[in-house]
Amino acid sequence: MVCDVAVELVGPRGEFTQIEVDQAAGTDFVGVAADAVAVAWQHVVHGGMGCGGIVDPASTFRQENSSEPGVVGANVPSIRPCCRPCHPTHSLVGAAPGSYRSQEAVEEASVKSVRLSTGSDRVKVVVEARLDVAVEGTARIQVDGDRTTVDRSESRITVRVPTGTELVIGTTSARVEVTGSVGAVSVVTDSGRIEIDEAESVDARTTSARITVGSVVGECRVRSVSGRVEIGSCGGADVATTSGRIDLTHVTGPVRAHCVSGRIEIELDAAHDVDAETVSGRIEVSLPTEVQVYRSDEPGVVAAPEGCDCTVRASSLSGRIQVSNR
Amino acid sequence: MMAAPVSDDPTVGAALFTDLVGFTEYTDSVGDVAAVGVLDKQTEIAGSVLEAHADARIVKELGDGLMIWFESAHDGLAGAVSLMAAIERARTEGSFPLSIRMGLHHGEAIERGDDLVGQTINIAARVSALAGPGELLVSDEVVVACGAGAGELRLSPIGPVSVKGVQEPVWLQRVATPGFEGADGSIGE
């Protein structure tokens, strides 16, 4: 493919406009139009149509009636056919009219959050030193201010985002992998597997996926029916499973752990309150040697009495409970 | 047997599903009689809370859960937050042994006798299933329908979930409720 397209949106700057590429309106142009949008936004949607980004600096198309959403394609020169069937609709929403060049787009880019909604297969989010969002795979991408939404993905997808981006991810059964350091991240999936390297905070929900979280600055909230939950370190945790085992290590904040029949193991690095509850599963809580623990059997966490550093409430109808210093 | 009468026009409102977390295991541990006592207590608490919401009604009991219908999203959200607070308070006082989870969705439903059916109901049930102990999840439709009324609550995005038979994913938010997070749960008009 040899085509390089710069997008020029003509119209009063600041007005809402929309570029929409409709495959039915010009199948041959879909790939290029996708590239065009990608160039305009410095690969914000690069590869989003599954066509790659090939550029010819001489080619420019204009979206004349910029205050109205329009179909782009018919007047784009130097076009080569799309390499394979693309997603039928691709839209870039919320762009201000005006001329956009790739370098300018990079300098102006401001991505705060990315919302991903996919079906099955695999979702990989790579966090790296960049200012934009790049998508590798077939999907619809919408940009609305500082929020990018990626959805209607039917196959494996990789999304590259800036460090600290907030992520909201939902899949049916895909494996979700987040590598690098993100902001707040929320993941919902029925099955598959969830792996998160580093985050400001985590909210992960699944029916059966195993959840592995490396390091979380703030609270880690997890809900699972049968998947095992492992958290390397966090500033607090609220974890509930039905039968999945809960393993929390290097915790530096309050913990609430609830499990019906699975085992709970909590290792705190400092004195913090713990509320752990199972119906039949075993509970083990371990704290540093110097911490004076108040053991409570009362419902809910009560304040530790004078002389104690924290309250540990661990209750189980039939499971064994062990609270110890290490 | 005659079929239940079905309304011609859909009614608009909010469907709330509740579920007791670990009820099956609890029953196994304490026996049927004590378990039934918990269900009675739940219905009693719900009935007491719903007295403040004239348009709300318990549509039916579903095993260890309830299906409650509110005539508006705002009332549904307020009712759900109040019910969660009442259950958590009862747990703290030691008069209720289990946590509750809830899901709320807003939309149209068809009245079939005393029951309500439709995708709104199906989605609300799915939303409830994703909540954890002591959690209230709501769909974006609830938040949008509440408008500024939801502004005083602390909402956190959860993500999109797919529901069988529904083409577009349903985006969910978690509502901070009194208890562990210390939110007051109040809702403005």
Features of the shown structure:
heterodimer, A: 326 residues, mainly beta, 21-stranded mixed sheet, three-stranded mixed sheet, disordered N terminus, B: 189 residues, alpha+beta, eight-stranded mixed sheet, 5 helices, 35% helix, 30% strand, globular, disordered C terminus
User: Which residues of chain A form runs of ≥5 with pLDDT under 50?
Assistant: 1-109
- How far apart the termini of chain A lie comes to 63 Å
Largest interface: A-B, 29 and 28 residues
Strand content of chain A: over 45%
Mean pLDDT of chain B: 87
- Put simply, the count of helices of chain B is 5
The backbone outline of chain A, from C-alpha atoms, is: elongated
Sheet with the most strands of chain B?
8 strands, mixed
**Radius of gyration of chain B, taken over Cα atoms and rounded to an integer in Å:** 16 Å
Question: What can you tell me about this protein's structure?
Answer:
The complex is a heterodimer of chains A (326) and B (189). Chain A contains two helices and 27 strands. With 326 residues, chain A is mainly beta. In chain A, the strands form three sheets. Chain A has a 21-stranded mixed beta sheet that branches. In chain A, strands 3-1-6 form a three-stranded mixed beta sheet, with helices on one face. Mean pLDDT of chain A is 71; it is low at 1-109. In chain B, strands 1, 2, 3, 4, 5, 6, 7 and 8 form an eight-stranded mixed beta sheet that branches. Chain B is an alpha+beta fold and 189 residues long. Chain B starts with 10 loop residues before the first strand and ends in a 14-residue tail after the last strand.
